[in-house]
Each structure stands twice: as structure tokens, then as C-alpha cells.
Specification:
Strand content of chain B: under 5%
Radius of gyration of chain B: 21 Å
Structural class of chain B: mainly alpha
Oligomer: heterodimer
Number of strands of chain B: 0
Order of helices and strands of chain B: HHHHHHHHHHHHHHHHHHH
GO biological process, one term (chain A): mitochondrial electron transport, NADH to ubiquinone
Family (chain A): Belongs to the complex I subunit 2 family.
Catalytic activity (chain A): a ubiquinone + NADH + 5 H(+)(in) = a ubiquinol + NAD(+) + 4 H(+)(out)
Number of helices of chain B: 19
Number of domains of chain B: 2
Subcellular location (chain A): Mitochondrion inner membrane
Largest interface: A-B, 29 and 30 residues
Domain NADH dehydrogenase subunit 2 C-terminal (chain A): 289-343
Strand content of chain A: under 5%
Chain lengths: 348, 460
């Protein structure tokens, strides 16, 4: 893609999210989300293969539906309350509609079906943008509406954790696995959003760090299938050490960083005396750990000297920029002892 | 405490920076140095409580023997792994040793933790290096299944434990070992209280393992390489016992009734797994099931919470750690020579390897709890206190002792006595390294006959 067009699209992505962050009026918030959607459509379709066009079309339909619903809910709220303020949603009807529209935008269960198929059609960089940057603006709006009863958030959250885990069981395509992992982690986030928004912020930040490092590892070796993971040892051996640790961190094992959001969320749920919910969420996250473990098996833990499990792809483009990978991998593995410092940095 | 922890952490850079020629010598000698220095923990000046205190780490008479066992085991693991790792590239050898060292670091932090969440995080942290050791360096295809079983059985128990601990922290404000014995119990609805009790204990019971949740153990022990089997049998199972001992203090009024099914399950497991041992064809599986059997006795002892039972449990944990690890080393000598774990393929070894037969004899006698070895002292104290708790347990424990003697003898006769099979003409003689390994296992066991106060625990 030509550099001016590429930079215009990236800048538009940034503009859209920033507009949503800076807005208090429903129209402006909706506009920012629409700019985001429109900016990422050409990025998704950039390599013009039919699978990418299919993913782009699916993404467009889903996001258009969700945006239309969001606009409708915002206008209904303005009609009912006389205010265009985002934070003022006293009526359950409008707040539920807004929540569901935004849940469809970010791919929470039961509105998640588009996510794996869209992610499968994209290249890894666009998939990274989809699973990290595109989540920020809708999450900010969900946080703003402050609903009076947390039931819908708990339902969305728990269902997303279960679906995100169970759905990824049978997958061999890495992008679909990453989509399901995104669904599961966003489930954890939405679960705690009504009880403690700083923890939701912590979860999304840690999730972005971990996903960034995992996507970067996959981009370095251009692997998109479990079978092609198994030749990583021949190409970049250090990745076979770091990637399983990133995967286990995504699964939430102590003493890696991924344990931090789960620990803090379970602590908050215990404070709210929601122990059965906490137990169900914790045990459901074991589902996703199973397929992360399977990826680690394929990559590192089964390595005979001759490897019939993977075909040897061409090694093109040997120059890699590995600084972001190094930074995010280090924070994915080593950040748990800094939990008190990080918690004190979460302001609101 | 840091005098041992920091040198252990610094073993990691020394593994990676040592030249290839000196790698195994260096790691062995430095870990032996740390192990000898760790013996200072056994000199506890205060009889009633904690020593080597800091605000985050301390040791008391229960954790001290386990800490020393952990530090003692690292040189033994290095010694045992040397042969099968010799053919691998140097960086993989370094990675393997680093995994063993990181296990030691996490275990020291776990046993010396003074706060329950720290103990929990270190308890879980030991899973990752063990998983990598089992699934990367195991020898058969089934090791992947073994790693999955190991990870998921333990996690399914420990996630409810995390929630139970967070609930406790919410109601009491702290989870420090120094203060929780003096806090009032968290009483909510009876059902919630029972669930909380179960959540607290389930992780440790699965780790011990309790008979119903023991399926991960034969898989993990059998598929692990020798160092993995040693650390699993000797220390990681004892993490479960140690955790149970620590947490039973706060579970008090409910334990009198709620522990019944678990005690019965544990004692029944002693007999069942002992009987399974009599029918095993795989040598490592036999030793693994014998571990389940001994740990069932330990679990029953801990659950009845009397002073003699705690003492017996601790003695049996230490003695069983050394014995089981020695038996795995002996099974490994067989495996390295015949590359098979099947017992009938390596019979009559007394003729071929008479010196190793001596070690087999002593290890078997230790396993079947011969007096005056500490194995017997531990078992006897547990059996006596169980008899005091209820007369009828004597049937189960007595039968268990009988079956233990039966399968230990079966194992010895099967591997050592009888005729050599026709395909075994000669085997490599035992290396000095293997003799040293078994001496370092069994000599502490014999020396502990002379001063059992070191592993008594709280009973002064």
C-alpha cells in the first residue's frame, strides 16, 4: 500500500479513538467509532485476496450494525432524558442497548461469532490492530455509561470467558486462537468493569502487552498455523524460550505477569462476596490455558532432531525490528513483582 | 535466609557463563556448597517459633527439614542428570540445569514464605519448570499427556484455593502466618463455610496426592526424566503436605467432621495403590504408586491434627523423600542400561551389578519401613495416632503396612534375584557417580536414625 495512503489510514485510526476519548456528546462518540471502522476497512483489505475481502465484508457488516444500534440507543437516551451526555443513562433500556451494541463492536459473547472469522482473514499486523486498538474506544464508552445493575456485565463477562476458552479448543489456525483468546480476556475485563474500573484498565493494559508480544513473535516467523510453529527452533531459537512463557502468561499462570489481572479481579470479586462467580470464571480460564499449552507443546516442548511435523517455509526478509517484541516480552514475563506499584498507578 | 537464596539465584548466571568443560563440575560443586550451608537452618535456637526471621521469609521447625531437603536435592539432581544430558547441545544442558535451579529458588521461597499469598504464588510457580522438564526432556510420547494431567489437576485444585485465600484476606485483613492462628474464624452460612474449607484443602490434597485425585502422579513420575522424577517425588509432593499443615490451623472447628471422608479416602488409597503396585510391570510406575501409598498415610496423619500425627507426617515426608528419590535413581540406572522400564526385561541384576544390588537392598528396606530407619518411626507415629483417633483404622493401616512390605519385596526380588534373562549378557558396571548419588541419598537417611530431633517438627 502506498505510504501516503497507509499513513492517512493509521492517522485516521488514531483520530477516531481520540475523538471518542475526548467526547461527551453521543454524536461525537459515535463519529469517532465510525471513523475507526472506516479507517481500518482498507487496512484489512490491503492485500486483495478473497479471504481478506471476505473478512473485511464481515467486519463491516457487524460494525455497521453495532454502530447503528449505538446511534439509535444514544438518540433514544437523548429523547428520554433530554440530555446528550454520555454519562447520563438512567434508563435500563438505553443502557442495556448501548452495552449490547458496544459488546458486538468488541466481540464479547454471545455477540462474538464474527471475531474468529474476521481475524482469520487478516494479516498479523492488522489482526493486532483489530484486537488491541479497536477495543479501546468501545471499552471507554462502556466504562462511561455506569449502569446501575452489573448483571448484564457479569453475564457478558462469564459467557465470554467460557466461550473464549471452549471455542479455541479445536482450532489449529493461530489467528482464530488469538481471536478466542481476545474474547476470553475481554470477558475478564467486562466482568470487573462495574465493580472496579481501575482493574478493568489494568486488565486491558496487561492484555495489550501480552497480545502485542505474542503477535510480534508470530510476525517474526510469519507463522499462522500450528504446524508452522514447529519450525521456529530452526529459525529463531530464542523464540522457543520466550513464546511458551508468553503463552503461559496469557493463560494466567503465576509467577508471570498474566496472573496479575486475574489475581486482582478475583480479589475484588471476593470483596464483593461473589465467590461462586469467581470460581466459575477462574475454572473457565483453564479452558484457554489448554490450547495455549498445546501451542507451547507444538513450538518448544516437542522437538526431535528431524521434524516431520512442519514443512520448511522460505525464509525471506531477514531484517527484523525486534525492539517492541523485546520490550513487551520482558514485561509479559517479569512484571508480577511490581504489582503494588502498578496498582497504585491506576488512578480512577 | 538470603544467605542461601541469593547464591541459589546466582547459580543461574554461573550456569550460563561457565565454559562447557566445567559446566557439570561447577554446578555440582556450587550446589553442594549451598546444600551444606543450608544445614545451618537446622540449628533452630528458638523452640517455640520462628527463626531466621525477616518480614517476608522465615523458617520454623516444620519448614526447616523440607528446606534442607530441597537444597540437598539439587546437587543430587545434577549428578543424576549428567549422563542422559551429555549428548545434547550445550545450551540445552544449560537450560535444563537452569530449570532445576529455578525450581530450587521457587521451592525455597515457598517453604520459607510467611504469607499465604506468597506461598500460593510460589506453589504455582513450581509448576512451570516441572512441566517443561517433564514434557521437553521426557522420553516417551505419553509425556505430553502427563504434562497436561499434571498441570490441570493441580490448577483445578489451586484456583479455588486462591479464591478461598482472598476471601480470608478480605475478612481478616492479613494472611501472614504470624497472625492468622490468632484470628477469629470466618463464619458465614454453614454451606459457604464448608465450601471454603474444601477450597482451602483441595489443592494440597490433589498435590499430595489423595487417592481419588492421584491420576496425574503415575503419569508425571513415569514420563519425567530422572531429575524430574526426583524433584517430584522428593519435594513437590511435600509441598502439598506442608501447605496442609500450615492451613489446617485456620480451618479449625469444621475439620473435626469434614475431614472424615478425606481420611478414609487416604487410608483406602494406601491399600488400593499398594495392591496396584503388586501388579505393576513398569518399574517407575511401581515406585510412583508406592509414593501415592506413603503420601496417603501422611495425608491421613495430617488431617487428624494431633501432635504425634504431625510429627509422624513430617518424619515420613522427609524419609520418603530420600527413599523415593533413591529408588528412582536406581530405576534410572536400569533405564540407562536397558532403555526399558519393564521389570521382567531386567531381572536378576544381582549377578551382573552386585554393588548396585546393595543399594537396591537398602532402599527397599527403607521403603518397607524397616526399624530403626526414620521411615518406620514416621509410619509408626502416624499409625499410633490414627489408632488413638479410631480403633478401626488399625485394620487399614496394618493391611497397608503388610502390602507395602509385599510390594517392596516384590520389587527387590523381581529386579535383583532370579535368573538373568537370556538377552542380558553384560551391562555397563555402575559408575562412581551413581554410587556417589545413592550414598548421598541413603547416608542422610541412616544418619537421621541418630538424631531424629532434626525432623520432628514442633514436638520439642
Amino acid at each position: 500500500m502506498a505510504p501516503p495512503i497507509y499513513s492517512a489510514l493509521i492517522i485516521s485510526l488514531g483520530l477516531g479513538t481520540t475523538m471518542t476519548f475526548a467526547s461527551t456528546h453521543w454524536y461525537l462518540a459515535w463519529m469517532g467509532i465510525e471513523i475507526n471502522t472506516l479507517a481500518i476497512i482498507p487496512l484489512m483489505a490491503q492485500n486483495h485476496i478473497p479471504r481478506a475481502i471476505e473478512a473485511t465484508t464481515k467486519y463491516f457488516f457487524v460494525q455497521a450494525t453495532a454502530s447503528a444500534t449505538l446511534l439509535f440507543a444514544g438518540i433514544s437516551n437523548a429523547f428520554l432524558t433530554g440530555q446528550w451526555d454520555i454519562t447520563y443513562t438512567p434508563y435500563t433500556l438505553t443502557s442495556t442497548l448501548i452495552t449490547l451494541a458496544l459488546a458486538m463492536k468488541i466481540g464479547l459473547a454471545p455477540l462474538h461469532s464474527w471475531m474468529p472469522e474476521v481475524m482469520q482473514g487478516l494479516n498479523l499486523l492488522t489482526g493486532l490492530i483489530l484486537s488491541t486498538w479497536q477495543k479501546l474506544a468501545p471499552l471507554y464508552l462502556i466504562y462511561q455509561i455506569q449502569p446501575n445493575n452489573p448483571n448484564i456485565f457479569i453475564a457478558l463477562g462469564l459467557l465470554s470467558i467460557i466461550v473464549g476458552g471452549w471455542g479455541g479448543f479445536n482450532q489449529v489456525q493461530l489467528r482464530k486462537i488469538l481471536a478466542y483468546s481476545s474474547i476470553a480476556h475481554l470477558g475478564w475485563m467486562i466482568l470487573i468493569l462495574s465493580f472496579s474500573p481501575p482493574l478493568a484498565l489494568l486488565t486491558i493494559i496487561i492484555y495489550i502487552l501480552m497480545t502485542f508480544s505474542l503477535f510480534s513473535s508470530f510476525m517474526l516467523t510469519r507463522t499462522t498455523h500450528i504446524n508452522s510453529l514447529s519450525t521456529t527452533w530452526a529459525k529463531i531459537p530464542i523464540l522457543t524460550v520466550s513464546t511458551p512463557l508468553i503463552l503461559l502468561s496469557l493463560g494466567g499462570l503465576p509467577p508471570l505477569t498474566g496472573f496479575m489481572p486475574k489475581w486482582m479481579i478475583l480479589q475484588e470479586l471476593a470483596k464483593q462476596s461473589l465467590c461462586p462467580l469467581a470460581t466459575m470464571a477462574a475454572l473457565s480460564s483453564l479452558f484457554s490455558l489448554y490450547f495455549y499449552l498445546r501451542l507451547s507443546y507444538a513450538m518448544t516442548l516437542t522437538m526431535p532432531p528431524n521434524n516431520p511435523a512442519g514443512t520448511l517455509p522460505w525464509r525471506l526478509n531477514p531484517r527484523h525490528n525486534t525492539l517492541p517484541l523485546a520490550l513487551t516480552t520482558t514485561s509479559t514475563i517479569c512484571l508480577l513483582p511490581m504489582t503494588p506499584a502498578i496498582m497504585s498507578l491506576m488512578p480512577f | 535466609m538470603l544467605k542461601i537464596l541469593i547464591p541459589s539465584i546466582l547459580l543461574l548466571p554461573s550456569t550460563w557463563l561457565t565454559p562447557q568443560k566445567y559446566l557439570w563440575t561447577t554446578t555440582l560443586s556450587y550446589s553442594l556448597l549451598i546444600a551444606s550451608a543450608s544445614l545451618m537452618w537446622l540449628a533452630t535456637p528458638s523452640e517455640t517459633g520462628w527463626s531466621f526471621l525477616s518480614c517476608l521469609m522465615a523458617s520454623d521447625p516444620i519448614s526447616t527439614p523440607l528446606l534442607v531437603l530441597t537444597c540437598w536435592l539439587l546437587p543430587l539432581m545434577v549428578l543424576a542428570s549428567q549422563n542422559h544430558l551429555m549428548l545434547e547441545p550445550i545450551n540445552r544442558q544449560r537450560t535444563f540445569i537452569s530449570l532445576l535451579i529455578s525450581l530450587q529458588i521457587f521451592l525455597i521461597l515457598a517453604f520459607s514464605a510467611t504469607e499465604l499469598i506468597m506461598f500460593y504464588i510460589m506453589f504455582e510457580a513450581t509448576l512451570i519448570p516441572t512441566l517443561i522438564i517433564i514434557t521437553r526432556w521426557g522420553n516417551q510420547m505419553e509425556r505430553l499427556n502427563a504434562g497436561t494431567y499434571f498441570l490441570f489437576y493441580t490448577l483445578a485444585g489451586s484456583l479455588p484455593l486462591l479464591i478461598a485465600l482472598l476471601l480470608l484476606q478480605n475478612s481478616t485483613g492479613t494472611l501472614s502466618f504470624f497472625t492468622i492462628p490468632y484470628l477469629p474464624s470466618t463464619c458465614s452460612t454453614p454451606w459457604a463455610h464448608k465450601m471454603w474449607w474444601t477450597a482451602c484443602l483441595l489443592a494440597f490434597l490433589i498435590k499430595m496426592p489423595l487417592y481419588g485425585a492421584h491420576l496425574w502422579l503415575p503419569k508425571a513420575h513415569v514420563e519425567a526424566p530422572i531429575a524430574g522424577s526426583m524433584i517430584l517425588a522428593a519435594v513437590l509432593l511435600k509441598l502439598g503436605g506442608y501447605g496442609m499443615m500450615r492451613i489446617l490451623i485456620i480451618l479449625d472447628p469444621l475439620t473435626k467432621e469434614l475431614s472424615y471422608p478425606f481420611i478414609i479416602l487416604a487410608l483406602w488409597g494406601v491399600i488400593m495403590t499398594g495392591s496396584i503396585c503388586l501388579r505393576q510391570t513398569d518399574l517407575k510406575a511401581l515406585i510412583a504408586y508406592s509414593s501415592v501409598s506413603h503420601m496417603g498415610l501422611v495425608a491421613a496423619g495430617i488431617l487428624i491434627q494431633t501432635p504425634w500425627a504431625f510429627t509422624g507426617a513430617l518424619i515420613l515426608m522427609i524419609a520418603h523423600g530420600l527413599t523415593s528419590s533413591a529408588l528412582f535413581c536406581l530405576a534410572n540406572t536400569n533405564y540407562e542400561r536397558t532403555h526399558s522400564r519393564t521389570m521382567i526385561l531386567a531381572r536378576g541384576l544381582q549377578t551382573l551389578l552386585p554393588l548396585t544390588a546393595v543399594w537396591w537392598f537398602i532402599a527397599t528396606l527403607a521403603n518397607l519401613a524397616l526399624p530403626p530407619l526414620p521411615n518406620l518411626m514416621g509410619e509408626l507415629m502416624i499409625i499410633t495416632s490414627l489408632f488413638n483417633w479410631s480403633m478401626w483404622t488399625l485394620i487399614l493401616t496394618g493391611l497397608g503396612t503388610l502390602i507395602t512390605a509385599g510390594y517392596s519385596l516384590y520389587m527387590f526380588l523381581m529386579t535383583q534375584h532370579g535368573q538373568l534373562p537370556h538377552h542380558l549378557i553384560s551391562l555397563n558396571p555402575p559408575h562412581s557417580r551413581e554410587h556417589l548419588l545413592l550414598t548421598l541419598h541413603l547416608l542422610p537417611l541412616l544418619l537421621l536414625i541418630l538424631k531424629p530431633e532434626l525432623i520432628w517438627g514442633w514436638s520439642a
